[in-house]
Batch of 3 targets.
Target 1
Amino acid sequence: MTPASARDLQKLGYDCVIEAGAGAAAGFSDQAYKDAGVDVVKTAAALYKAADIVAKVRPPSDAEVKRLREGQTLISFFYPAQNKALMEAANAKGATVIAMDMVPRISRAQKMDALSSMANIAGYRAVIEAGNNFGRFFTGQITAAGKVPPAKVLVVGAGVAGLAAIGTSTSLGAITYAFDVRPEVAEQVESMGAEFVFLDFEEEQQDGSATGGYAAVSSPEFAAAQLAKFREIAPDMDIVITTALIPGRDAPELWTKDMVDSMKPGSVIIDLAAERGGNCKLTVMDEKIVTDNGVTIIGYTDFPSRMAAQASTLYATNVRHMLTDLTPDKNGAPAHNMDDDVIRGATATHKGEITFPPPPPKVAAIAAAPKKEKPKELTAEEKKAQEVAAFKQQTRNQVTLLTVGAVLLLGVGLVAPASFMQHFIVFVLAVFVGFQVIWGVAHSLHTPLMAVTNAISSIIILGALTQIGSGSFLVIILAALAVFMTGINIFGGFLVTRRMLAMFQKS
């Protein structure tokens, strides 16, 4: 809880309690909580006794489970698949357990997705830790003292943590490469300025939509091809950040000892999967080691805690959103709706029953990537024939249009006086030219270009001004209306242009 989230919880009708010193490491003093209307109690035992809903970060200890009581709700990272005994003990106490790590990855639940919030911080912090242990610049430089080549960074796994690491690495100026078993993330990687490492492998990988947005287990053949590719590029990499994890499984081994041995002295490996065994063979959990060939391997498991203020703010917001969904009436009384996909998916125990594992959500985690057929490569002759056919079709259309227009003009000329025809022909030609100008503009460019081409409307103003002094009252009214409406058109066009240009300017 942060003081800001406490105020939001109070708007939902809740009274807030926090253990003394809980926010100190994140920069939130007890006084700041008191100023926000939060009761500060001295011990965790007192907090469990006072609170109907207990929110924490890590899974509860055995002592904390014993403090739970019937009807009490616990919200925390719980990992029910790995903590079955803990889940059964909490259920025996009659408590409701909401596991923040079980929030389904659907669009509506993104505001409660604490795993993504923490992974985002971990990915960012991994690059900062790598820079702290890397002996060179990330960006390339040419100085009076010589040329400094840019660092080469490989990010293995392009999930939330991986994408955060890619964004941070590219913004620091490093040449960034990324790999993921899900081919649909290649476009995301490339949009962030990194290069996606493709495998020359025939087998099609499972789409991320079938696995809740997570990577699926690879076949032995694909894993072998993956390792072969990593061995090929390992000697060129200065920094390797591994983020590959599959929920409920130990981390897959992706960076072997021979790959580490092939890396240059001074290189750095950041293993974000260290808590589940690590993606690197030599990773030691919660430690930093240096190999015999001078490669630094970091296996810290507390990257979010190394940015405590940011992590607390994001996690407190995730918990607050969870409580918002649990309290639709904003009356301080949680309504545990097991028909809600998000609440049901995150609930591990409720009313004396173990509700884990949850049924799959009714909405897919992500839309399945549509299979795109590769367009057939045309030969030079086929391209030329296609262009000639398109030119002939366009010519036929224009000739037909001009012929029909000429016939209509002749028809009108047979019955209309010469003075009328003079003005009518000018009008028709103006319409034709205007149509050709506007129709040739691409749809994606209509808004900015129309803002400029609307200046052509000034011709209308000039014509209206020449007629506004007419002796006919009707002509004067029509000319005045033309000036008024065209003025709005021109003014609005340039206003739109100004606003669109402002989108590309830093405030």
Target 2
Amino acid sequence: MKRLLLLAFGLLVSMVLFTPRCYAEFPDPAKMATPVVAPEELGMDADALDRIDALVEAGIQDGDFPGAVVAVGRGNKIGFLRAYGNRQTEPTVEKATFDTTYDLASVTKVTATAISIAILVERGLVKYDDKISKFFPDFAQNGKEDVTVLDCLTHTSGFTPDNSINDYIGYNREEIFQNICKLGLRTPRGEAFAYSDVGFITLGYLIEKLTGVSEDEFVRQNIYLPLGMVDTGYNPNEEQRARAAAAEKRTPDDEDWIKGQVHDPRAYEMKGVAGHAGNFSTATDLAILASMLIGHGTYTPASGADPVQIMTPETFKLMTEAIVVPRGIRSRGWDKRSPYSGNRAVLMSPAAIGHSGFTGTSYWIDADMDLFVIFLGNRLHPDGKGNYVGMCGKIGQIALDSIHDPIDEQDAKAFVEKSVYRSPNAATSQDRIEGETLAGVDVLARDDYALLKGKKVGLLTNQTGRLKDGRQIPKAMQDGGVELTTLFSPEHGLYGALDQANIDNATDPETGLRVYSLYGEVRRPTPEMIKNIDAFVFDIQDVGVRFYTYISAMCSAMQAAADMGKEFVVLDRPNPIGGVKVDGPWLDPGCESYVAFFPMPIQHGMTVGEIALAFAHYYKLNLKLTVVPCENWSRDLYFDQTGLTWVNPSPNMRSLTEALLYPGLGIPEFTNLSVGRGTDTPFEVIGAPWINADDLAKKMTALNLPGVSFEPITYTPTASKYADEEVHGLKFTVTDRNALQPVQLGVALMTQLAKDYPENWELQNANTLLLNDQTLQAIKDGQKLDDIVKLWNDDLERFNKFRAGYLIY
């Protein structure tokens, strides 16, 4: 009988390991590799990707890590693969190479454990909502009886991040798990997100329990060898250890640095094999795994070898779908957007999954954007210090920005058609009636807010969010029967009166509603803020310039809504400076920030509704978006031709004239130049104590710039730069707004200042808003304006083709 049981167990193990996909023999690794090709073959820009070099080399120079390997690719190919610096500097120097083996640390959680659990769920051996105590009765001690597999995968089990190392030292694997079984919970299950190695160590034991083999053997047989990943696994062999990246010394008294052994102390005590850490790999091996994930569970080698399915598309979808946890979004094992997502590119789609590792590793895959980004570094060598997380996010964003896929015009048209609200009460005539423009909110109100009835609504707005009759939109919505539950405010607050760095949450006295500031502790609505709303509404007047932050507030809120599966409604407003002109340099790859949320020229010529359409469609937000368009507005209209009342969008944007000049005169705002803050006419004057006003006026006049004249002026700002100090400069008068080219005006001014006052003017700080190194260098070099403008031509042509698919006026 005993023999029969043993035979049955052996058969079960064989079925688990090799059913339903049986690998009679593993494929030739040479045929499974992801080839390195020219970026252009993958629809990526090589010059953009080259910007990664400066980031990594700066990290090495700053001592954040001695070396690294970066791989960026799409589909089943690599478009960028480079090794930097050294994999070891003590006691001898070894250069980093493409085949350097890196300790993945917590990236193990996803490259081994999360995928293994997904496979076992697919095979019916476990369910995500199974309790751990179902398989380990002793685990049900001290309040852990209800902790599930999913709790461990999403770090919501209530476990401590790490239990004492003394629970590991001197114990065998079985005894170590018994020590874990004795632990209590730090917080009640499901009430907090607390990143925990203990949960993943537990999952590693579960994999062994279910399969009858160690986790390292299971992943080797079921993931790595089928994919040809011969350099990935636990406990590297002698040859792999020889080319491994070094870490720090295990103790200060050790003679040798850790090299080819797991750094994590608990995984080390577990003989190198654990659910939370211990995996080693190379960038090229991880590219294969990433390609499998982009293929939704199936890897199709570029060589033409037979595809290999590791999991079904249904299993992949289940593993990677968004799960709301306190303080963020996770999936079943993977990070998506949480407090640990600093290495995530800000514009990756909601489909993106990834993770980071303590040793200096980062791994992100965005299947919807067909992109993977791999950074393998050893930040702990030689002294256990080093920071790399933020840099990895920038590398990912450069990779995303390098993609130049053409827009599918038919697809974009269909998306716009689906997303733009068609009012049943719209005028039948197509003739524009000048002075009778209706903003989106006026259209919505005319239709009795039907679009929002029956929904719990959150509203992001400020003082510009008002109807044509002057009523503020929050109270008007309440009076109109909309169930408005929450307000959100952008930079300058709900009433547009605050000119400060951080704004606190508040209560709106008119509606009594909670106002969450998106310009304080957070810039993006948290899941807790929007979990109880059905629709997120945006209504704020923009001014048509890339660095005006209301676009960033909208796009960030759209990302949050997409993550949470919420509807997003944009109540459109006219672009006050018109929708015809598009001018200025393109945002440099990887330079996204809150003053430049996604790539576009400085003057974009779009409304916020059109930007929302472009952002949601291009970055595949999978968002139910509705844009309520303006009526009786066309692209050639300026704000004073709409019949709408000018309301200062921000404290220092007080007139249409200032908005017209802002695309150019706003650029140098972060330099030591007054742009009129602290005067009655901000962005209509500039000055500094060191400027010769008469001379500058003559030189600027001589340039014959269209649509503007210059007057020497002396003034004393009461606030901001040079407060209470006399400055000399220029007053700008718009003489022909149709001819005015404000960005070119700003660049011409900066070029002249750089030429005349190289010792006085802090030109470099102009790149805070300019964000284009080539243009900045051309200004420094004193190039002619026409030659500088030519630098933008290709990008402007590309942007005009891009935006054409999303224009609704």
Target 3
Amino acid sequence: MRREGAEAGVPPHAEATETPPSAEAAVRPAGASTSAEAAYVVAFDTANEVIAIGIGEIDAAAKDVAVVATCEAEAYRASNTQLLPRIDALLKEQGIAREAVACVVCGRGPGSFTGVRICMATAKGMASALEVPLFGVSTLDAIACQAHDAGVRGRLAVVADAMRKEVYPVCYELAEEGVVRLNADRVLRAEQAAQALADSFGAPIAVTGDALKKYPDMFAAVGSLCDESLWTPTGRGLLLAARDAWREGAIDPFDPSRGNPAFVLPVYTRLSDAEENERIRLSKNDPKNLRTGVQEEGLRRDQRPLALDPAIANAQPDGQGIVYRPLDAAHAADVASLEKEAMGADAWSEALVLDELPRTDRVWWAAYAETPPQPETPPQPATLPQEAPPQPEAPSLPGASLMVGYAGGWVVDGQLQVLKVVTHPGFRRRGIARRLLARLAADARDLGAQDALLEVRATNSGAQAFYRSLGFEQAGVRRRYYPGSADALILQGPLPLAPGTLLPPSTPSTPSTPGTPSPQSSPAPSQSAPSDVAGMPLTARSTEAPPQPPLILAIETSCDETAAALVDGTGALLCDIVASQIDFHARFGGVVPEIASRKHIEAICGVAEECLDAAARKRGLSRLRWRDLDAVAVTYAPGLVGALVVGVAFAKGAAWAAGIPFIGVNHLEGHIYANKLATPDITPPFVVSLVSGGHTMLVHVKAWGDYETLGATLDDAVGEAFDKVAKMMGLGYPGGPAISKAAASGNPEAIDFPRAMLHSGDLRFSLSGLKTAVITYIKDTEAAGRTVDKADVAASFQQAVIDVQVAKAEKALVQTGAREFCLGGGVAANKALRAAYEQMCARLGVRLTLPPIHACTDNASMIALVALDRFHAEKFFPLDADAHAHTSLDQAY
């Protein structure tokens, strides 16, 4: 399918260097393959309430796809339970083996965010394990192709339901020779879309799409409504869209290098709600508001500017001490100052920068450092992002925040047009420009951009080399574009940017075996490493012990860490990879579920592949493949359901494709098993305290797999309380480490905070009252004109939590008669809590097991250990298994 004006994405006034071939319309009959061995494509889509599946036979010589079988079924938000079983059944009906699948195609949306991710995660798992290319096609293009195949001609508008009284409207020209897309993906209010269609086309047009179920009258006024059978994607439409993309050179089902599953991503057309509200706040966050605290009328609380916005206060520095965050209005003057140095007479003014920030089709990022710059040569223009060698560090300036770079872009017609990229001359050659561009690209991709465009001087070979390293290629020329009549080369690049854009420094992995804690380090990244796509820092732990079957790969995506681990039959962990999302959530002061889900779909392929590669390196093998595994395991509950869905769908797809068992694991059981990493011979019965951001509970472990919850929190979990108290004191995120650090220099007896339910007579907990007491104390102290001693508040709050946790744990040990106590969950890393339990167990004569610090937070190694036991017990999950936000640890599964 061609896009109108899409010849290399070059605007009309530019000189295009290449024009893609036009598509043909014919669909050949089945069975006409000229290859000696039949090859098939499996295509599917779950972007809305309908599951669409198509199986096609591929004709390489004719670049054709014959429709072999299709299936469409109402899913009613049950796509994750129905998709794989239906694919499996359809292939079996046609007598097609998995090994005959040469290519996987999935719908990229736009549509339901969760629905699109279910489709894509399943496809990524399938393609990875089958070792075949994966390509994405637009869900709306598939609908248009189906309409064309049904005989619709002329102008067609596809309007898909985007919820919130919005639609995704895309227009097409349907001629005898094929389908041409007329505009990029976007999201509009339904009435706005209808009006735009009426204004754009004088004559009535054909209209289709599932938004017609909600707004039939509104769009009937625009044109004739297609038959309802054409409103949603079909298997045939997906295959036709894939065939058209093949003929246009966009995909090649026989070229794995062009179909890396890691780089196929959803079409969202908008940022998450948290990011959108953040942009609104920051665009209003001018110096006047910072000084006076004036609040803008008409804005919701989460959109109002704050004197110390979380996006500013909580942003995490990288390994070089550079902080990246969305540009806010309070720093527009800094941009203007750096602009003047870099661009001279062509520099943007502060007013022009301020005018850019509120625009919803703009993305701006900035980089900050606390280290002053070193003397350097005069700054170069934005089109010359050459950076000087790093200078020796100058003394840190506490509280200082120097802008060292910024970048901005305009998302228009499905393309990111890069407007600015500037780096401070004292901070060049540190990868700042590269990382700023990557953040622009990530936001632009979420806003519907498919590629990026920028101009560079024809004589600027350094800048051209830099952009080519990111995947940009020349697409045209603008004559006499720069002052002095200098020509500009138009460069076009992919989204996401080329691999390595956000790679962290790489260090060798460190050997680790159960019972031996190891430091976290970064593995040597593979071409599909998750940081290539998502920019997430990796950590790896592995062992050189000879592996024994079974080999099980486990995946963890219950919250904000994408993790994979490989365990062998002896319980030895061959590798444990974690891609952290903390940088993406820190500026919001907590985990944003939608962002977590998006980052999981970006990272999961690379994390799994890096786990296999790292394990292979330790075994001295050139490669470890999915087909070498004996099972795939995944956390299925409890957790953020949108995050869990990504892991479950990916793991199911991979297990199905590899023809091996699929194992579901309870996340809480994983935290119990994490104690095996410290004490491999640990044996029930024992009592364990699970303390994390989502759970606070005491559990009697009667046997592995046999659990009784003795008591749980009635409201906030311990980790949640730590986050909230840290946030109200401005200590940053995550709250646990921040509170612990502040408490180290405070007096735990300074403030007598309440010990809720300490004498309740049961094993339940409550943290909300303690949290309220801290808020009240801070407000009363400030009202009295006294300075709040944050260290004393943190220490006293932490001690109040510990006192109740230890007292309840002791009661549980007495009640059960257990002679061993364990700990699990993120808060288990708290040093003061661990010390208190050590004292308690020593006093009671009870054996204490504490998981390694690295195994307290979410990881896949603990999931792998549970999976190993479940493998031996043959406790496998079916392909219709789903993720669950809540589940009882006490209930066998």
